Amino acid sequence: MKFHYGMPIFAGLIIFLGLVTFPLWFNAPSEAYKDPEPKLPTEAEVKAAGFDTFACVESTQFMREKHMQLLDEWRDWALRDGKRSYTNAQGQTFEISLQKTCMKCHTSKKEFCDKCHEATAVTPYCWDCHIEPEGYNETH
Amino acid sequence: MKRTRRSFLKFAGATAAAGLCFSPALSIASGSPGHGSGPKVTEGSKHAQRWAMVIDTNKINTKEQILELEKACHVWHNVPHIVDEEGNPTKQELKWIWGGHFHEVFTEKHNNFPAEEIENREYPLLCNHCENPPCVRVCPTKATYQRPDGIVAMDYHRCIGCRYCMAGCPFGARSFNFMDPRPYLHELNKDFPTRTRGVVEKCNFCVDRLAQGLRPACVEKANEIAPGAMFFGDLLQEDSEVRQALREHFTIRRKPSAGTEPGVYYII
Question: What is the pTM of this model?
Fold first, then answer.
């Protein structure tokens, strides 16, 4: 059996594979991916912020996965339904407010929010309006 | 056992009944939100069926007084003060509460020789929180909406800056953020957000303060300047302070012929 146009086909395939795998071999020598490490508040900081319990509004895993849905619901509850208190399954109640609740403990956008957002290349525009407690001019 | 139609139906019925008994128990056990969790109205917040305001223009009627109200409101809500090099207001100015001359405020036909003192007063102006708000009707994204208590509120997250509401509002109560407001904000209230470039904003009847059990910033300030200058309360409660004020004084509202039923009344 004769292979027609073997030379250009194989040359093309090699070039194609080279291009497709470019990100893999190009990044191979660089450092391995590290999980982002957002700075979590310490118990003393939480107490100083005026909260009775050390726990966040919901569990760490929940906040990691679903804080955006939580914030989305919080916004609608507070603005549309006029409900500004949130009680979690443990029975603890928090005021529904990004600036007055979340950011009382998570006092640095740079050290907390930005860590994961930068690693995952998302740019939520929360801080176009909401005021982060410190350094808003640096990142704005 | 021979499976008859009768025995099958009996079994199906029994299963359905058992399911109905057990399903609430199962849904609790399966980790759905516990009792009492979820959003609630904050305790100690102020409520009304229809919020309204009465302004006594015998007591608040100068530019200086209105400037004080403006300061109280704008500082609380992070409303920037945008002026040109000479310190004059510009077209990019943002206002939640401001002042106006008699003829700009009450534009409908009045008598040909009005009382001079009344004609020369400066009138405090703000969003009227109309009962039939045109801004809500024209908003294509439902960023502006009317709450059950009559407050015409805004969700800035949804505002696309089309400015239909500004065209719709007969009272000029809305301002557009032509530029980022933050460089013009010198003292920030960190308990309230700012706005961003490209959204419309307006007075929110201090819905955020009412939720904390506080009265509106302008009402508090006005009563500090001149006690009894501004009343705020439930229009549908006969014994509320606004109804009391409306009973005792002659009041007018802005542009009644527009049919929007403003919630701000002026004692003349």
Answer: 0.82
